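To: structure desk
From: M.T.
Subject: fold request, one chain
Message: Could you run this one when you get a chance? Sequence is below, nothing fancy, just the single chain.
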Amino acid sequence: MEVNPLCPQLPIFDLGAYLSASERSSPDMVALCEALARCLHETSALVIRDPRVHEADNKRFLSTMERYFSQSEEAKLQDVRPELHHQVGATPGGVEKPRFLKDAALQARAAALPPESRPVPVPGADVKWRFFWRAGPRPEETSYAELNAPAVIPAAFPDWADVMDAWAEHMLRALRTVADMAALGLGLEPQSLSRLLNHAPHLLAPTGTDLLRHGRPGAVFAGYHADLNFLTIHGRARFPGLRIWLRSGERVEVRVPQDCLLLQVGKQLEWVTGGHLRAGYHEVVWTEALEAALEAAKKAHRCFELGEADAAGPGASRHDGALAPGPLWRVSSTLFGHAASDAVLRPLGVFGTPQALREYPPTPAGEQVRQELEAIALKV
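Reply: Done. Structure tokens follow.
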């Protein structure tokens, strides 16, 4: 574990020591995993460095998604599947509604925070676009077929499947390792958490927000919410704006160092730990750091248009021999790791107390997802 120079509240956990350990139940490894579990308990988030994942992998994925989201709305609408609850393909901006809008308990939770830590008021549905790409093998038989539907491949991207699958494989591998480390650190049976991830409806779920259209003070790109799945994992975004809430109620603007990944606890992991780990609340909004990054990106565009290629800056990419800045969209490289749809969520091991079982009764993961999708207006 090392200090995160960009976000001290979230130390960096290097998975290399665990992956290379000859005895993963040694005192040193147990201590590392206990520290990791403690960080998840206190912050609902985690920053990791996985030696199997490189920044170049993240950049390739982000560049592909920037090109996708920069297409015309007409082209992207060909990839929308509302009949499948938007669980594959594209979800347009204005469709996904933060649960905050109609959840009185969530509104009360936000109102109880100190004024300086409250979320930005949610004006309505999220303006962000999203694309869902299924990741990993699906079950041969399931009671939740709509959550395990065939993938959508955009017409203009012949290398789409290769790019998506490569990034998804990196994310799932890291996520499984963290699940195993968390199980050890929490005193649960080995692989009791990662086992739930087998044949699950994992979704690569990048978001895209047009900063030229929506970038202004007070803008909310993704309203205050917690994720419905097991664990969420992201690479580093090119534009800031993500803010999370620690268990203490402190609001933190997340900054992820290069070659690192960010994880957040979802509601399914909260369920199986009986609330010991809490789903992490977060929002994506206009911030001063985002404004500065956008101005720098605009300058890169102006330099390119004037022929000053050398001044276009580090955010530029090379196309046809010319240096061109990337599109002005805020894109995330998010993957939602899920529990298998037919797995029954219940507090495990030491967390299976009578009180926890009352608060988190045995529930099929697929049913939990259906209920959550209905609450955020993705279920039709």
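Reply (cont.): The first strand starts at residue 12 and ends at 14. Let me know if you need anything else for the meeting.
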